[in-house]
Amino acid sequence: xxxxxxxxxxxxxxxxxxxxxxxxxxxxxxxxxxxxxxxxxxxxxxxxxxxxxxxxxxxxxxxxxxxxxxxxxxxxxxxxxxxxxxxxxxxxxxxxxxxxxxxxxxxxxxxxxxxxxxxxxxxxxxxxxxxxxxxxxxxxxxxxxxxxxxxxxxxxxxxxxxxxxxxxxxxxxxxxxxxxxxxxxxxxxxxxxxxxxxxxxxxxxxxxxxxxxxxxxxxxxxxxxxxxxxxxxxxxxxxxxxxxxxxxxxxxxxxxxxxxxxxxxxxxxxxxxxxxxxxxxxxxxxxxxxxxxxxxxxxxxxxxxxxxxxxxxxxxxxxxxxxxxxxxxxxxxxxxxxxxxxxxxxxxxxxxxxxxxxxxxxxxxxxxxxxxxxxxxxxxxxxxxxxxxxxxxxxxxxxxxxxxxxxxxxxxxxxxxxxxxxxxxxxxxxxxxxxxxxxxxxxxxxxxxxxxxxxxxxxxxxxxxxxxxxxxxxxxxxxxxxxxxxx
Length: 487
What we know:
The protein is mainly β. It has two helices and 39 strands. The strands form nine sheets. Strands 20, 21, 22, 23, 24 and 25 form a six-stranded antiparallel β-sheet that branches. Strand 23 (257-267) and strand 24 (270-280) form a beta hairpin. The radius of gyration is 24 Å and the shape is globular.
């Protein structure tokens, strides 16, 4: 086996049963390449996960659809052979039939462009399929969302400086297409990930985030794709804003929007990087910012946004991002975090749900709100530093979390996970609780590990399998014990 496969640990974090508030599902595929790009709640409360599969030449094979419970149990699966897939198209709930899911796809065949909608019921049965040839001169959309009128608002790239905006019905009918739109004067190049989003419904307004390195520039369009204005935000509180391919934006329903961005500034001769979430009001001014984390070029932890990193609901904002750390014993740890903020950008909860050891990559491409107020994410795990070495896909379903206050008032002001563990035990502390040291004892009473607690993880990969007792000494003098099982 490759070294990377040996050194890679695919660890799905499960909280202790006393504080269970999310569940995971992991699937190891049988195809040379698997990519999981969508997850959606079905009308019966279960979830549908879509996996795009490819052969050894990275040619399209088709889709696997999996029906899983919110607890992470597989109920059913369906394979759909399709050699013309574009894996980033979203799945949608049918606005006409709540019991139906629409799987969307745009593709090119024999120099013509098509749209296909596959309708699937809650039993993973295909009930209908609509295929529509787009008019000559239309292009394949590379970014789209469904607006408040249940139309797909699409961006189709012409070249690096020009694009179309298109309004397409869920049946594939092209309702309206703009003239060629230029990004001239924006110092922008059009890339796949540029977000298009709805700013308001009455009147209908859309925003398109231009790809820039030194500020956030957004063009505002009316419902007929006439450009109304261009807004540029150059900095915030000393930070230079840097729109990247991982920038995402969602409207808040009141004429404003939420946007994720990487930012940078200089402190003396040291460059500092951070991830910000910005709340922009209807006057296109920054109302508030939430800072996920900061780091210098040569320090850890470091932070990265993941694809499809933002989901805005009526009451909450959900974020997906990655934390990278150099750990003890020369192990590198990458942790996937999901955070929940309220609409004022105040944190509600932030939890790690998955991590990789040493090598590997996350690809998070699914993010959807749930009817219970939670959120679900989905993606894939690569055992190489490449997207094209993936066979493992995952889904994580978040329910109602213990709040910081609830965690602080519990008997133990911390959570240890996973347990049992193979390589690493992570510890999450309640707010205002700090730990001075952690001691790990074998079942016969021998001290096998002592760590002054400067880290939030304990490396146990060098220990023999068995039961250990972890003693945590808090800064307020209190001591706690936790039983840990090493696999």
